[in-house]
Amino acid sequence: MSLKDRLISIRSALPQSVNLIAVSKTQPSEAILEAYQCGQLVFGENKPQELVAKASVLPSDIQWHLIGHLQTNKVKMVLPYVSMIHSVDSLKLLIQIEKEAAKIDKKVNCLLQFHIATEESKFGLSLSEAEELLKSADYLAMNQICICGVMGMASFSEDEELVRSEFLELKDIFHHLKQNYFIKDEHFSELSMGMSGDYLIAIESGSTLVRIGSAIFGYRS
Ligand SMILES: *Cc1c(COP(=O)(O)O)cnc(C)c1O
Fold first, then answer.
1. Per-residue DSSP letter, 62
2. Is the pTM of this model over 0.90?
3. DSSP-derived 3-state class of residue 134
4. Rounded distance, CA 133 to CA 59, Å?
């Protein structure tokens, strides 16, 4: 199957309400352009430097989503190029985004990343940490930040019921935050979950944004 055929077949499996992020990390510009020529405008990268390098040379109507961990010292470089940051996992990071965004007068779309998998990971908030962030005076005073929803990664597992339960946990977190902090805010609407191996389960569990790499581009080196 060609890249085009893989893209078409994945798109045909997505309901209208689900948007596709083509995860292009480690892929060369030629592969990204091939997907772009098939009408794919939203791409995901996990490293700020790689996102900036690609965004600088590829068509300007591409929307770049940062899906990987963001260190505070990389915020400034990536901010001009990014249309959504999926990996906000601390108040400290959000404060830095607010500060740098104010300098370039940009509103920044962010998702709160949650740790839902059984695997150990340094990244991702718990529900109580997220609530602490959302109640903080620092967050409440921010003008540049738009929190658009939540993001999470399920366990890397063959156990579909485990994966499903983790996605449903993220969906519960989304609804809890919506009810308690964003009830009148229509921007808070995104549930970013689902990758090549588990996107069908993610869609059944309420995903609105799937992040798919290898199923489009083939295996990464
Ligand atoms: C790499 C990556 C993906 C895509 O993974 P595939 O299995 O290639 O679809 C999705 N989300 C994040 C955060 C990633 O780092």
1. P
2. yes
3. helix
4. 36
Residue 205 CA, chain-centre distance (Å), reads: 17
Average pLDDT of the chain is: 97
Nearest CA to 88 out of 171, 147, 23 is that of 147
Q: Confirm or reject: Cβ of 214 under 6 Å from ligand 1.
A: yes
For a mutational test of ligand 1's pocket, the pick from 46, 123, 219, i.e. the residue with the most ligand atoms closer than 8 A to its C-beta, is 46
Which helix H or strand E contains 204, and what residues bound it?
Answer: helix 199-204
> C-alpha angle 169/114/81, rounded to 5°?
135
pLDDT at 119: 86
For residue range 136-190, list pLDDT tens digits in order: 999 999 999 999 999 999 999 999 999 999 999 999 999 999 999 999 999 999 9
45-71: b or e for each residue (b if 16 or more CB lie within 10 Å)? bbbbebbbebbeebeeebebbbbbbbe
- For tokens 């779309």, the residue is 109
Give yes or no for residue 216 CB within 6 A of ligand 1: no
Distance 177 CA to ligand 1 centre (A): 25
| Interior/surface letters 76-97, b for 16+ CB within 10 angstroms, e for the rest | bebbebbebbbbbbbbebbbbb
What's 81's DSSP letter? G
Per the CB < 8 A criterion, the answer to whether 216 and 32 are in contact is no
